[in-house]
Amino acid sequence: MFKCLTGKSRTAIALGAAVLVVLIVVTALPRSVTGSESSVRMIARGGGTTMIEGGTGSAGGFVPVLTTVAFHAAAAVGGGVTGDFECLARAPRTTTSADSADFTTNAMYVTGHVTDAKRSGDTAALSGMATITGLGAGTDVPFTFVLTKGGPGATAVLTTDGSTRLVFHEVLVEGSFEID
Fold first, then answer.
1. Angle at 132 between CA 131 and CA 138, to 5 degrees
2. Strands (E), the chain
3. Statement to judge: residues 66 and 142 lie in one domain
């Protein structure tokens, strides 16, 4: 019913399995194996936590705002720019008491596609269209994110041009902004 494999048969099967593993790896990682990375050029990328200068700036007093931001932009094959941008702004549940350090209220969420990017030294300006919830809510809202390269202390300005133009000056507290 079952046939015993000879040493040559086992070697052929092992060699075939090794070739199959290499083919799977080559297929799964085409950019690093085939060198097609040169067809996409990274422009800017980064992520981290920022603090909005001036917080909410509301008339009722200063309320701090922290954001979690993540982005990337690359020169697309054949021209143009492609990328994504995410920014979640959180404010404290209350402005006084121990809960004032509990940044759990979703003040604004911006999720969009980067369609243009410009670099100048250590600065990059990414722009595109976004969907926004919270402050400045809307769909297909134009946005611009201007960042300076660096780690904590690097700055950024997020501008959304919906029904109300909103401008947020941000300072990176944790993370890194890179410009290639």
1. 80
2. 41-52, 66-75, 81-91, 105-120, 123-134, 138-148, 155-161, 165-179
3. yes
Pair 44, 33 in one domain: no
Residue 119 or residue 78, greater confidence: 119
pLDDT classification of 31: cutoffs 50, 70, 90? very low
pTM of this structure: 0.76
Q: What is the DSSP letter of 153?
A: T
Ramachandran area for residue 7 (φ above 0: left; ψ -120 to 50: alpha; else beta): alpha
- Partner residues linked to 167 by β-bridges: 159
**Same-domain check for residues 13 and 97:** no
Q: What is the mean pLDDT of residues 124-146?
A: 97
Q: Are strands 81-91 and 155-161 parallel, antiparallel or unpaired?
A: unpaired
How many Cα atoms within 13 Å fall on the side-chain side of residue 87? 34
Torsion of CA 8, 9, 10, 12, to 10 degrees: 90
Q: Which residue range forms the structural domain that includes residue 24?
A: 1-38
H helical segments located in the chain: 7-28, 30-34
